[in-house]
Each structure stands twice: as C-alpha cells, then as structure tokens.
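REQUEST ID: PR-0412
SUBMITTED BY: lab tech R.K.
PRIORITY: routine
TASK: structure prediction, single protein chain
INPUT:
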Amino acid sequence: LLSVSVSVYWCIRSRLGAGGVDAQGSLLKPMNYDNLDWHIDTWNASFRDKSNRVKFYIFWLAFGNQGYPELRMDIPVGSPRWNTLVVEWLNDLATHLLERHGMTTDQFAFYIKDELEPRQVLAYYEPMADALRAADPQKYPHAAKIKLFVNPMTGTVMSSSWQHFEQRYEKLGLLAPLAGDYPPRILESLHRSGNLVWSHSTAGKSAGYGAKLSGWRCMQKGFGGMGFFIYIYSSYPSSYDRVYTVKDQVPGAGNETIVPTRGWEAWRDGQEDWYLLSLLKQTAHDVRKTDPAAFVRAMRVFHEAIEAVFIAPDDPRASLKARSR
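STATUS: complete
OUTPUT:
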C-alpha cells in the first residue's frame, strides 16, 4: 500500500463480565493477548519494507457477542467498580502494546460503537472517557492518553444535535465522519476539535467511482486521512463495497481463491491519488521558507487539480487528467 500511514482495524473481544474482576473492579487474572499478538505480527511480517509497516491501529473493543448492551459487563456504567475495570483493562492493554510491539498511544485508538449518534456519546463514550481521564497517572500511566474513535454518519454530522460532539471533543481523539459535503461551520468545528480528523466511505454509489474520489475529497476538506469500510466476503459477485468476493460466484475466476471487486480496485486507485496529493503538499511545505515561489506554484497545482476533479465528479477522466498534472 502506498498510503502515508497504513491503518488496520481489529476486534479485541473480552469475556470479563462481573466474574472477571473483584469487588473493587480490579482484574482477577492476567489478560491473554496471544490472538492479538499473532495478528499484529502477521500484519507486520507481510511488509517487506519495515518502514511501511502498519502505523496506526483501530481496535474495536467487542465486549461480547450480544452487542453493545454488554458494554455494561453486568456492572453499572459509571460506577466506581466499572470505572476501575475499564481503566485497569485498557491501561493493561496499552502497556502490553508498548512492551510487546513498541506501540505508543499515538499509534492506536479504541472503537466501541459503530456509526455513533450524538445521544450515544453520553451512553457509551463519555463514561469511558471520564474514567480514563480521571485515572491515577502514577498507577495507570497510559490511561489518560488513550484515544477513542468515532465514525458518525452524514445525517448525524448535519443534525442539530452535533453540539453533543462539539461539547465533548476533548474526550475523543479520532473523528472519522462519513465523507460528505459539509458546510464551512462543520468543517471549521472539526478542524478546531484538536482531534485527528479522517474521513471514510462505505457501500453504495460512493464505493464505485466515488471510492476513487475519497482521497481527493479528504484533501479538499482538509482531513488528515481516508478510509473505506470494507467486508472480506460478498454474496454478490459485482458488489462494490467488498474487498474480495468468493471465486465460485465470479465466472472466469480460474484458480483464484478470492477475487478483488471493482469497489476495492477503485479505492486502491484512489489511494494512490491520495499518496500523490500528500507528497505534493508535503514537498511544497518543505520548501516554503527556502523557495517561496516554488511553494506557491506547487500549492496552485494542488488546489487547481482538486477543483478540476470536482467540477466533473462523475467523469473518471477528470481525476486521471488531474493525476497526470
């Protein structure tokens, strides 16, 4: 992958529950991270160039198979016992990631609720963020630095209840709203948040040619990263939103076990555009002081290329021409 920072999304399942902690909420036995370690090691081993290894992970904290209500873990959310459990567990996990993989809290975020709605900030994120921020820094040195990942959808971002997010920016860490045409007020709010701000696309039309434009749109909005929510297997041979589809559903697949879909090819092509845009922008800023004229010329190309793409957003030739420039 050519992206400046490769991210991986992985699920960490817990079977803690009330039986896994004592009366105060402290862990009764060491956590087992063997499965997590295997996946991280496997990902890193797949990169021939060590400098291209995964640089940011998004870990989904799956508290059980029955869905988000198990966030309670049979212990009242926000209670002293629940707070201790959350702090001990996540600080223990952060310590393990640092000691075993050299991974700091700047290299991962935790994800606990998909497509969050503003009211769910109160139910899911705020209690966890408050517990982590209030942790004793001597006893739990990593807790207060842990980032929480939020991926609100377009309707949520544009709703009047967006203020619930704005009032709690300091409790998050990584925002990845669905790619959309947000008004200046929303964009300014996101950039002032103090959080990492990425964006993402999903299924439907946005996963076809729109997936290729994800990188362009992120650059246009000033977001610091792009993403594409994907699912490994598809029951539809021409599905746009899946990375791969099973071979027996694709005529002419030959001996291939899995076959890339058009959606994945489009997104990967757009990722290369993102890389070139990133390189142009970074190179321009590197010479800003030593060669101001070159900086102005490079940034003019940067902005004019993006503008040209979105003058004709449904014409694939526009992005190809802009890439050549």
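NOTES: Residues 1-7, 64-70, 203-207, 231-242 have pLDDT under 50 and may be disordered.
REVIEWED BY: pending
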